[in-house]
Specification:
By secondary structure, this protein is of the alpha/beta class. It folds into two domains: about 120 residues, Alpha-Beta Complex (Aspartate Aminotransferase, domain 1), CATH 3.90.1150; about 240 residues, Aspartate Aminotransferase, domain 2 (3-Layer(aba) Sandwich), CATH 3.40.640. It has 15 helices and 13 strands. Strands 2-8-7-6-5-3-4 form a seven-stranded mixed beta sheet, sandwiched between helices. It is globular and about 55 Å long. The termini are far apart. It binds pyridoxal-5'-phosphate. One of its GO terms (cellular component) is cytoplasm. Belongs to the class-I pyridoxal-phosphate-dependent aminotransferase family.
């Protein structure tokens, strides 16, 4: 018998895979995993095709294709008034996940403390732990999931190295407000604390609210690694292309790791994305596109027994069910698949202590017909 010590002994299969597998077995409508069930732009597909035909099939530069980094820099300048130099402040990554892992790997030393807010996307904590870092968790509570900055100050110590933020937020669909930004500026002022800002849903933000990217605020941008994902932007989650932006000194460290964990990202996709970014409507229209889906889904569920939580961004609608059933949220989510044929994610999965507020998360990045069918079924609860 080979003796072996797991590096992540408590980690199992993630909840998205579990719920998706159950949905598949039961032939249920899958609103659990966060990906669109509709096609991306055919133009984008033909641009990839063209790039392949033109022979762009070998390694891309380690930092990403220059034309793509230039397009990202131009978009960031135009939207957030921030200047990131394509040469040394932007790197193309294999999706947001790799950018997050690389950012943590490049900055966190053993015993460094990292503050995260739960419910949290599942890849932050394991990456911190793998680097020997210490996860300092703060639980946020429904219905508004606002950050209590006084409590955050209490978590800060001389070992605090980083704060991880995610806006628009998965799973709660909240977005950072101006007062959060003010607090963050005052909290980090004259400290060495870094910010890892997961902004993969930057363009999916509703009701005319601005996206408060760290890039907009020089005091925060100077200490931030900002992560973005083309998967979310152009309905291509399976392509796994994203990017990271940071000040040159920090990006230099990021690239030291990036070159050894992926080296470079698939070339034809980068050619296509560089061209497609010139079509501004493709990303500027995303908020309206998803707002219609949000409104359609919410209005369908209005007469249901679920209580709808606010949804200000990203493509998730949370619902409260604990007045309907006393089951825990995992059990209720499984029953929902069996009884009405709709799969959701139980929100306790986003808390390390499995804190259960009786809430499920539905993904509404789906075709109208999928949403119609899901609503029909959910009204039977
Ligand atoms: C909050 C958040 N961050 C990061 C990611 C990962 O993005 P990518 O699919 O580009 O790796 C996701 C994907 O669902 C997400 O929801």
């Amino acid at each position: 018998m080979i003796s072996f010590q797991s590096k992540l002994p408590k980690t199992g299969t993630n909840i998205f895979s579990v719920m998706s597998a159950l949905a598949q077995q039961a032939d249920a409508i899958n609103l659990s995993q966060g990906f669109p069930d509709f096609e991306c732009s055919p133009e984008l597909v033909s641009l990839v095709n063209q790039a392949m035909q033109q022979g762009h099939n070998q390694y891309a530069p380690m930092t990403g294709l220059l034309s793509l980094r230039e397009a990202i820099a131009a978009k960031t300048q135009e939207l957030y008034g921030a200047s990131y130099h394509p040469d040394n402040e932007i790197t193309v990554t294999a999706g947001g996940t790799q950018a997050i892992f690389t950012a943590i790997c490049a900055t966190i030393h053993p015993n460094d403390e990292v503050i995260i807010f739960e419910p949290a996307y599942d890849c932050y904590a394991p990456a911190i732990q793998l680097m020997g870092g210490v996860v300092k968790r703060m639980e946020l509570e429904p219905p508004d999931y606002r950050i209590n900055w006084t409590m955050v100050r209490r978590l800060i110590s001389s070992h605090t190295k980083m704060v991880i933020l995610n806006s628009p937020h998965n799973p709660t669909a909240t977005v950072l407000q101006e007062e959060d930004i003010r607090e963050l500026i005052s909290l980090t002022h004259k400290t060495d604390i870094l910010i890892l800002s997961d902004e993969v849903y930057e363009h999916i933000i509703f009701d005319g609210q601005p996206h408060r990217s760290m890039a907009r605020y020089p005091e925060l941008a100077e200490r931030s690694l900002i992560v973005a994902s083309f998967g979310k932007l152009f309905h291509i989650t399976g392509w796994k292309v994203g990017y990271c932006m940071a000040p040159a000194w920090l990006m230099n460290e990021f690239r030291k790791i990036h070159q050894f964990n992926v080296f470079s990202v698939n070339t034809p996709m980068q050619y296509a994305l560089a061209d497609f970014l010139q079509v501004k409507e493709a990303y500027l229209g995303l908020a309206d596109f998803y707002q219609q889906k949000r409104d359609y889904f919410r209005s369908g569920l209005e007469s249901s027994r679920f209580e709808l939580l606010p949804c200000a961004g990203a493509y998730f609608q949370s619902v409260k069910f604990n007045h309907i059933s006393e089951d825990n949220d995992l059990l209720f989510a499984k029953t929902l698949i069996d009884r009405v044929g709709v799969a959701a994610v139980p929100n306790s999965a986003f808390y390390s202590k499995k804190t259960d507020f009786g809430i499920l998360r539905f993904c509404f990045a789906k075709k109208q017909e999928t949403l119609t069918k899901a609503v029909e079924q959910l009204l039977k609860v």
